[in-house]
Design goal:
The termini are far apart. By secondary structure, the chain is mostly helical. Among the domains are: 6-109, no CATH class; 386-508, no CATH class. Strand 1 (312-313) and strand 2 (316-317) form a beta hairpin. The protein has helices at residues 10-16, 20-30, 39-51, 60-67, 81-109, 111-124, 131-144, 150-169, 175-208, 215-226, 233-247, 250-263, 269-288, 294-307, 319-331, 335-345, 354-368, 372-383, 390-406, 420-430, 441-465, 474-486, 493-506, and strands at residues 312-313, 316-317. It is built from 23 helices and 2 strands.
Amino acid sequence: MEKVPFSESKLMILTRHLNEKEFKTIGLWVKSPCHNGSKNVVKLYEIIKKYRKTDKPVDNLIVMKAMGMLPRSAKPKDISPKHKADLRVTMHSLAILIEDFIIWKKMREDEIGSKRLLMDALIERQTYTLVAPIMNKARKVHGASPFRDSKYWEDDYSLNEMDFYMEVLLKNRDAANKIKDVLDSLHQSCLSKLLYYYCVVVNSRIVVKVSEDYPFMEAVKQYVKDNSNINCPAVRVYYMLLEVLEYQREEDYYHLKSYLFEYLTIFDAHKIRHLLGFMSNFCNRMVRNGNNKFIQEKFEIYELGLKHECWTAGVYFSQHQFVHTIQTALSLNKMEWVKDFMAKYQDKLSPVSRDYISNYCQGLYAFHNKDYEIVRTHLNQNFTVPPEDFTYHLGLKILCIKTYYDEGNLTFDNMNMRCIENHIENIKQYATVNNNKKMSETVRQQYSNFANFFKRILNRKKKIIDAYEKSPTQAKLQALQNDLTQLKPLIERRWLEEKVRELMAALE
């Protein structure tokens, strides 16, 4: 029995995250004697090329047969330890080639960084005269960049530092002036990077309730606050974002939004994704605390991310972002928008999760459209392949509960038969610390709060349906509604509010 199936090996994980052009270029590397001298590696590349676009499962036996290591009639029992060892070596060699390609590609994309490495190498060889032309080219590339984020200032510092080194090496008198440029760019780079990571720290505290102390953070914040003349947008944006995350004030959010949207084009897609991600997390917290106007804010953030093409995770569209975008748009009843979004972006999801995520989102869309039969079809398909991500595992449970409850076929006798209470208990059990140590306390609370509060709604629903039970009074339902207003954090708040209003209307 294979410890790690071929399809889940490091090699195949790397391969799945290459686009067609990259995979084709690696083929040139594999077939070049400069990079590879193994015929087996070439064979393995061709096999992966053949199976890469199919859904057909590939295991070690299939690969060994295709490579000629075993005859076509071979069975799993014919695989010897030597066969396994030979295949591991070949897989490792191809994986290393792919890693080398990724490093090379990354260096080629970083023009300033690669030119700086070249200049360092030339200085080591004391070929000083060749450095100046390279520096001139690097300065032109740097000056033409539309970005002015942390990376820009890091590159600026790198080039200024090289200028300073050359002045010292050539014993020029301008070295003293050059050091000022080095320090100025280092100052901007360090401030923006420090503030960014302090944002990460504060956001982590909100999510997982850690209490690490960073005393220098207060000094940096005070410095930026006292020096309002700092006109570096990267520094200002991260400082304002830090204020939003620390104090959770609406006015800070809108201040940041106004400033960031004005200067958004100075950031690359990677940084825009991080910034919008921080802002959408803030919006999520506001919504879960009962401030529904931030649903529209979140939608605007997601649309902006689509415009700047920043919601990709490597080669593919982020599956989490895909679901969050659809859930937010459905909350605003943007049905046509959701249809267009799914048609445009679902093929950009990773092949590993595409079917499951598309199916789940189709279920969400059908539920919003009150097509409960279609929802059940999608739910039955998804439950045959349980997802690894706890968010979607619980999301399916909640969609089941909402579907069974909203179908309108509930009676006192069939409530338990429809498995609603089982799903409630499953959510409560799944969200415990012992069952899911990876789940943050905040996330744990919002799911537990949903399960516990919906159980109260269900109990009151039973009493209204049961002719032998005394129905709850309007006063008790009003108290339930008041408790819901105070309950934080909570997911599906708007749906729960709607269910409470339905109970109240049933007694009128």
